[in-house]
Protein 1
Amino acid sequence: MDQYRVYGNPIKQSRSPIIHQTFAQQTQQQLNYKSEYVELDQFEQTVKEFVTNGGKGANITVPFKEQALTICDQLTERAKLAGAVNTLSFIDGKILGDNTDGQGLVQDLLNNNVQLKNSRILLLGAGGAAKGVVLPLLAQQPETIVIANRTIAKAESLINNFNNNKLSALGFLELGNEKFDLIINATSASLSGNVPPIAKELLANTDCYDMVYGKELTPFLSWAKENGAKKVIDGLGMLVGQAAESFRIWRGVQPEVATVLQKLR
């Protein structure tokens, strides 16, 4: 049976095995997908042993996505621009790296009827989570994407990778009262119970998305709802969407995400 893994540290919280096993049942694919905890200094060795033992592919989660980039023989354009890899495919002993996070986000936004074409998007944060989604968002032909970050130099460095005049960079406090159609929180603020330091006026009548998810609304989405956001969406659909894209790359079939999302909720 074809073997797949998700590698991370920590990994107990991962929902990837249940997602992929459900996709496999849905599409009549025979595979075994498991999560595996990896010591911080054992990542490369673990992956290479898995390849040697006939593994077919792996998903990569925190904190190994940047390191995964360095062990690949070949990278997709979206992985190169993201500077991180979350999907590895092993073909003829070679390691191919891809990043499906942005595709997962875009698909989830479209599934939630969020208009992306000609829209004004505010992306909060300029770290790894933000990097992975810029290219797929640009492919949807928005009017503008403003990347806002605590240190503006980091946001500027991110947009310099893309050479696209729809992108601009600002500090959180320089946003003023600009109007946006969609605000995406790619900071880790929600994980520590905080909200990004932006004016609450920006939230009114705006679709708000948080890449983080939990049993309850995240702090950012609760705050957005209190301040008149039109729609609030958490990142669980992005998780299922990026998994669906990985599954398609590996197995050549497109699984259906709605029932899996319902199951996880």
Protein 2
Amino acid sequence: MLKRILFFAYGSVCYLIFLGTFLYAIGFIGNFGAPATLDGAPRGAFATAFAIDAGLLALFAVQHSVMARKWFKQQWTRIVPQPIERSTYVLFSSLALILLFWQWRPMGGAVWSVEDPVARVVLRVLFAFGFGLVLVSTFLINHFDLFGLRQVWLNLMGRPYRALSFGTPGPYRIVRHPLYVGWLFAFWMTPTMTLAHLLFSIATTGYILLAIKWEERDLTSDLGDAYEDYRRSVPMLVPFARRQASAGDSPRRSEQVT
């Protein structure tokens, strides 16, 4: 029983660290209310700042993807107990982001700067919409399972973990990856796009596209024709990009990369 209590406490702490990281990310990316932000006065030589920022983004991408893959989980759970595997993934992802926030180097320069007050408000609203869509999407696919709390809670109660049933709630009937759509809004909808912000947005967009490819390969392997039907009938990121058929109700599962 003591081990189960410790696992639950560990999972809860990992979740709280994630929650704090997520809230800080809003200010960091949106350039408000955070000690350090994505944009700002240049720090050091441009080449050095670029190399550091690119390295931080690469570190996060590698950690986030490798730890989400099946082959890694199979080896990792020989070391980390199964009930806290997801919480540990969440913790490592949060730490990678905290390191990025801490060591990020603004590079100055303005790719664009929107001065019209109405347009700035519109961009801010779209930015908020992006983060809102991310949060809503996680709850639609079971927020607490995605971030490891369900696993440690079931373990605490002495109940076996059962994978969630698959479905297409809400925006998942319009696009296959609304969570990623939300991130794209959050990354690109800014009144002022600096060079550092542009690097961040391009790198994270490229990572999202690769992550979708890897995730959908795993989904097809797990779900077979059911996911193939869903993939053919529902667009990936752009709503109404092609006609949806009844197969759009085919099962799917949550994003494994968050």
Protein 3
Amino acid sequence: MLNKTGKIFKALGENNRLRIVNMLMSKPMCVCEITDIIGLSQSTVSGHLRILKEAEIIEDIKEGLWVEYSLMKKDELNKTLFKLVRSLFDNDELLEKERRSALLADRNILCKK
């Protein structure tokens, strides 16, 4: 248990990964949607997603042409962690803007750029 917990906190110890988790709290997303909102390169976002996946914070599912990333909510530790993260983010204007942008992101438009 401690090993898993340590991986989770290490993965969430980086601001951009916290921002990604924040967006995924709104809806499942593909790399190009996340990249468009967060303003980082696709390879950087993919690296962050890999770390979050290895820590069992997110999961990926092939959805047609895209790989869709979503929060892994099956685990009670993750559910509790997401509630904590959400409460910490509630008053942050940038993170709220990114959550709203996540809801509006459309991979059918963004991924064709």
Protein 4
Amino acid sequence: MNAVLRLLRQHRSAVRFLVTGGIGFVITMTVNYGLKLFVIPQHPVTALAIGITIATIVSYWMNKKWSFDDRGDLHTGHEVALFVVVSLVGVALNSAPLYLSRYGLGLEVPNVTRTTQEVADFVSGPVIGTAIAMVFRYWAMARFVFPRTAAPVRREGPVTREVPVVRAPEA
């Protein structure tokens, strides 16, 4: 148990990133299926992209204030611009498997049953797409958006400093 706790503390930003991602996943699915089932059933990729976009806005705030709270010394405008670029690539990576499933493989009604279509949509978009985008986003956020700055080295125990000895010139 101690080893698990030590590992979680050691990778605190990654754990927090995953929790933030879980919250984003719930937001994405709620918006995606709300739009897909009730508003724009003929545009599943658009519904997913809208859900991802809304979740991404929430994700920026959570990542900045919680996941990477010990980082991010960039000017906020620059940081937001980088976040938007990373997020757009993430949306494309997240949507690509669903697009391929629906329009490349033809896994949509009338080619397959409604159940097969929905299972294929869920596996390709929220499962495969999210996994691909999550790995990319964590890497890009840690590397470019919220980079770790050079911090002073922490030392265990009391810090001792040598005091230079000043000697009088010999006569």
